């Protein structure tokens, strides 16, 4: 047969759209033509496929070969189409029956020797094949990661000859080795943090409701220590959340180990990071730090050191939970449902009461943060210096395990009541799941107007109060819950004080 059809998958954001590889061999001068909007890396597959077939013992047709990658309007990049192109040529030249390809999809880059090299984005490929009801053949290292996708038949291959023998039913493909289990990483414990009971309380509220958190305090008070201990008190990822996180890491060329499969990601980019590094981008759109923090924590230390324009690009993803990247030739959408944790000093000198910085200098320093950006952070607290003698005391602090039990109980209440964390509630859902007594609603609205806070802050205070009530296993939000939620607006109070 001179025509062969092989199925593969492209990479488009988090999606893996189907690509039909059509190979036609006809009479004429020897040529190898590749069409279907291929980029340079795909066009170079002509030389890789030719050498891989010859070095593997296959006869390379000395005729005109036309390869079409359909659909023609979908850009194709990378070496992932090498394997399906080679199989298409083998079938079209009569060295393999076409019916042996039925029910399979193939992705893999070929070395000149015929070995199959890894690709990027195996998790979305496996998910798409599962939804299409086909089995997938991947490079062995990719198959190791892809086998974590449930209800899909994944095969791993190391050489083109192995795939050929498998399709001829002569011998099975080698077994996919299990992912190596790393030693369980020791999660930092809250018991390591001396004092700071107020900050630990707010950390617990943030974990219970997935609220954004800002910690304001002098250098060396434990802000970074507290942030690093937040993952240890949060609920583990569900299977669906873990799969979504693994898919993002897959297209970014990173791997998730079985040991940390259900552990929430914790990303801490340096303050010199660009806007593209945070939100993603590039000619071929790639996920940024906020997408790599999906279902996890994005920790920004020394917050005012980040350029203001860089921080302001986070405003929309903080509200929507997704990031849209548009380029001239490509558009992509990545999930970015992350929990922002930020730390900053109250002045450029590290303290705001040491006399080394004037109020004007402090205001100029803090004004690097825009009001709309601060408005999106529900919990804002001061982390003060420890009292004299606290560091030398040998007191037993509460462990992360005991705090996590309360957080899990509160999160179970939220999932049973509304199916999501409190921080993810929309405006209409707040009215349904966070009702206030009439007197309490008037009290909160009067307070918002008195301090000239926004309507967004009004709703965020109600969400925080709902989380406080959930931690206490109380069905109704009370005045005490609202007052505690209102007290967690430290940066706004500091700015108001400096302006006066």
UniProtKB/TrEMBL annotation:
InterPro entries per record: CHLI-like (IPR045006), MCM_dom (IPR001208), Mg_chelat-rel (IPR004482), Mg_chelat-rel_C (IPR025158), Mg_chelatse_chII-like_cat_dom (IPR000523), P-loop_NTPase (IPR027417), Ribosomal_Su5_D2-typ_SF (IPR020568), Ribsml_uS5_D2-typ_fold_subgr (IPR014721)
Protein name: YifB family Mg chelatase-like AAA ATPase
A Pfam family hit: ChlI
NCBIfam families noted in UniProt: PRK09862.1, YifB family Mg chelatase-like AAA ATPase
Keyword terms: ATP-binding, Nucleotide-binding
Gene Ontology MF annotations: ATP binding; DNA binding
Residue ranges constituting the Mg chelatase-related protein C-terminal domain according to the UniProt record: 398-489
Transmembrane intervals: none
Domain Magnesium chelatase ChlI-like catalytic: 189-387
């Amino acid at each position: 047969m001179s025509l062969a059809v092989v199925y593969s998958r492209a990479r488009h954001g988090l999606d893996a759209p189907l690509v039909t590889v059509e190979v036609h061999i006809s009479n004429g001068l020897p040529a190898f033509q590749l069409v279907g909007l291929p980029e340079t890396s795909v066009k170079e597959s002509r030389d890789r496929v030719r050498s891989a077939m010859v070095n593997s013992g296959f006869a390379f047709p000395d005729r005109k070969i036309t390869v079409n990658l359909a659909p023609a309007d979908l850009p194709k990049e990378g070496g992932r189409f090498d394997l399906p192109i080679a199989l298409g040529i083998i079938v079209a030249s009569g060295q393999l029956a076409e019916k042996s390809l039925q029910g399979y999809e193939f992705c893999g880059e070929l070395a000149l020797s015929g070995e199959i090299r890894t690709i990027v984005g195996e998790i979305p490929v496996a998910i798409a094949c599962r939804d299409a009801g086909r089995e997938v053949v991947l490079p062995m290292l990719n198959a190791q990661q892809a086998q974590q996708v449930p209800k899909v038949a994944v095969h791993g291959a190391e050489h083109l000859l192995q795939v050929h023998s498998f399709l001829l039913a002569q011998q099975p493909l080698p077994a996919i080795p299990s992912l190596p289990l790393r030693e369980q990483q020791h999660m930092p414990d809250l018991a390591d943090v001396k004092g700071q009971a107020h900050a630990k309380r707010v950390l617990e509220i943030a974990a219970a409701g997935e609220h954004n958190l800002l910690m304001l305090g002098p250098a060396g008070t434990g802000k970074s220590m507290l942030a690093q201990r937040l993952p240890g008190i949060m609920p583990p990822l569900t299977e669906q959340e873990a799969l979504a996180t693994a898919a993002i890491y897959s297209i970014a060329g990173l791997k998730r180990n079985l040991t940390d499969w259900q552990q929430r990601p914790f990303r801490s980019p340096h303050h010199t990071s660009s806007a593209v590094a945070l939100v993603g981008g590039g000619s071929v759109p790639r996920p940024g730090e906020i997408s790599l923090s999906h279902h996890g924590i994005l920790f920004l230390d020394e917050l005012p050191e980040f350029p203001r324009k860089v921080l302001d690009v986070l405003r929309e993803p903080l509200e929507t939970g997704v990031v849209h990247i548009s380029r001239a030739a490509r558009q992509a959408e990545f999930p970015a449902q992350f929990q922002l944790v930020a730390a900053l000093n109250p002045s450029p000198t590290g303290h705001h009461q040491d006399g080394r910085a004037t109020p004007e200098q402090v205001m100029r320093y803090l004004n690097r943060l825009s009001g709309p950006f601060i408005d999106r952070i529900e919990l804002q607290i001061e982390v003060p210096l420890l009292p004299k003698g606290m560091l030398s005391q040998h007191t037993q602090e509460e462990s992360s395990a005991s705090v996590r039990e309360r957080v899990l109980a509160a999160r179970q209440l939220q999932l049973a009541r509304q199916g999501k964390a409190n921080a993810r509630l929309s405006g209409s859902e707040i009215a349904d799941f966070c009702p206030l007594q009439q007197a309490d609603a008037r009290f909160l609205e009067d307070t918002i107007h008195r301090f000239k806070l926004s309507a967004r802050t009004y709703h965020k205070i109600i969400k925080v109060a709902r989380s406080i009530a959930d931690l206490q296993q109380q069905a109704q939000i009370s005045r005490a819950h609202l007052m505690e939620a209102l007290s967690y607006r430290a940066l706004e109070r500091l700015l108001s004080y400096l302006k006066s």
